[in-house]
Amino acid sequence: MKLTRAADYAIRGIIYMAMQPEGAIVVIPEIAREMCIPVGFLGRIFQSLNRAAIVISHRGKKGGYSLTRDPAQLTLKDVIEAVEGNISLNVCLDGYSNCERMAFCPTRKHLADIQNNLVAELEKYDFALLAREEKMARAGEKTP
Amino acid sequence: MKLTRAADYAIRGIIYMAMQPEGAIVVIPEIAREMCIPVGFLGRIFQSLNRAAIVISHRGKKGGYSLTRDPAQLTLKDVIEAVEGNISLNVCLDGYSNCERMAFCPTRKHLADIQNNLVAELEKYDFALLAREEKMARAGEKTP
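ok -> structure tokens follow
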């Protein structure tokens, strides 16, 4: 019950993107350096974010990635699900399970409630907020 | 961000234990059969539950496992943590991380809040409740 490393790095990468001016194209090595992420791994993560239409890739000399939407419209849930797939707290909640107990299991309903709460929590935090806080934290670090 | 199979089976196993009269000693093959769990895997899971002092093992001809406490004092959180270790939503919250960003990362604080909420949710459900509901669900199945 833990975020994967890929999801943790995806969150950091999108925070950095959201700190840039609207429409900015950013390259992977810059994001990796600024957010302390291994560059090769981050490249693969951004391919997932591209497939999920959270970023778009630009080819050529000035190529890189840009966000496809306003960071205020993008939440922790969106970025985690882009990398890990739909959040499901238990295997019986992923839509593919054929557990023998599914039809009557009372515990499954509680896990579904807990999951819905978790998803709602993750939707509370958008990347405009996270980027704003990251900027403030960095400014605080540089002028103690 | 999903329960392991071991945690899922541990929850089922403890529900079955909690359905029995106080102090009852139950054998693994019976729990496995009643709760649709592979018997070998369940044996290993109960060793973890034993180490976490949630069940105690009894040797001999009438050997097996019994609960160490009132099911009303045992929550989903306890049983999940016995099998998976302390719940930590991200690697930076497990107490062992040395992430370079830890001292100032604003996102870590939000993940900690989300985690605290998740833990509080898991603490809401005790095994007296889950066992009572399981009994009702089974009775409903048998007398439709």
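Strands of chain A lie at 55-58, 64-67.
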